[in-house]
Amino acid sequence: MDLVARKKLNLEVLKRHDPNICDILDQSAHAVVYKFDTEKTSWEKLGYEGVIFLTQG
After folding, report:
1. How far is residue 56's CA from residue 26's CA, in Å, rounded to a whole number?
2. Confidence of residue 1 (pLDDT cuts 50, 70, 90)
3. pLDDT exceeding 70 applies to what percent of the chain?
4. What is the per-residue DSSP string for the chain?
5. How many domains does the chain have?
6. Cβ contacts of 30 within 8 Å, gap of 6 or more
7. Which pLDDT belongs to residue 25?
8. In which domain, by residue range, is 45 found?
9. Gene3D superfamilies, alphabetically (predicted)?
10. pLDDT, tens digit, 9 for 90 and up, residues 10-36
11. What is the Cα–Cα distance from 6 to 35, expressed in whole angstroms?
């Protein structure tokens, strides 16, 4: 699948969750969410991993 077709498909799927999304500005194939613990001065993994999309609404 070429990049234009993939972006179109991803946009259609994202719009099912939020119809206000009008464009995908950027994306990453893999992202992990961390939280900084100020008491331990270390990063804590929150358990969210996967594709991330930066969208415009």
Report:
1. 10
2. confident
3. 100
4. --HHHHHHHHHHHHHHH-TT--EEEEEEEEEEEEEEETTTTEEEEEEEEEEEEEEE-
5. 1
6. 49, 50, 51
7. 98
8. 3-56
9. Pleckstrin-homology domain (PH domain)/Phosphotyrosine-binding domain (PTB)
10. 999 999 999 999 999 999 999 999 999
11. 31
